[in-house]
């Protein structure tokens, strides 16, 4: 748990800086620390970075879905009295950002998507029967990255513990099914805000054709590639990721 985590009622979050709010949404197996590079860079450059802890494993099972998480983000923005935000999302976080933008377009001035779900879902579903196999889970965690050493023991242990906890496992499955139901292909052409798409060239979770589809379907999108990079660009190449996001924010005057 980050030492500067703010806890206030139902919300746990990080917040730093002043200026245009960048609201960062983590993925299914991710956490607030995945975006520590952004938390260090942007507050010194005229932006406010806010990273809420998404209640993925704290919702009633029947309400564990992408739509409910988008509504949670709306509650969070209302709580902080935020509008005209730039949503930044990785994997499931990108999907939540897209659903949120569909539901509340008036609150979003820009989107940053990296390894986002929403068009193509390939997670750890096939690993559930082998959830007790630590080495198998380790390999699945390593596959998220081009550089497998980034999948530290702490990261592997967290994934292993998640898929071996019955309550968390059921919610992971519920989210995976919800993500498939919430395919965004028909909705993306109606999203009018600028979108920055940053993709790892070596992403095998959401392969390169997914990035091209996002670029084709989002009317105001810009696609950037990072070489020798897997599914979590902000973790593998934080400096390059920050440079690309910053460049795009300036170009779009956000």
Helices and strands in order:
Blueprint: E1 6-8, E2 11-16, E3 20-25, H1 36-41, E4 47-52, H2 66-80, E5 85-90, H3 92-103, E6 108-114, H4 134-142, H5 153-163, H6 166-181, E7 195-200, H7 208-217, E8 221-226, H8 233-236, H9 238-251
Parallel strand pairs: 3-4, 3-5, 5-6, 6-7, 7-8
Antiparallel strand pairs: 1-2, 2-4
Helix pairs in contact: 2-3, 4-5
Task: Provide the descriptors you would attach to this structure in a database record.
Rossmann fold, 8-stranded mixed beta sheet, 254 residues, alpha/beta
SS-based structural class?
alpha/beta
Shape: globular
Residues in helices, as a percent range: 25-40%
Count the domains. Answer: 1
User: How many helical elements?
Assistant: 9
- Counting DSSP E segments of at least 2 residues, the number of strands comes to 8
Mean pLDDT: 92
Radius of gyration: 17 Å
* Uncertain runs: 124-129
Tell me the name of the CATH class.
Alpha Beta
CATH superfamily: Alpha/Beta hydrolase fold, catalytic domain
Question: What order do the strands of the largest sheet run in, or round the barrel if closed?
Answer: 1-2-4-3-5-6-7-8
Q: Provide the CATH architecture.
A: 3-Layer(aba) Sandwich
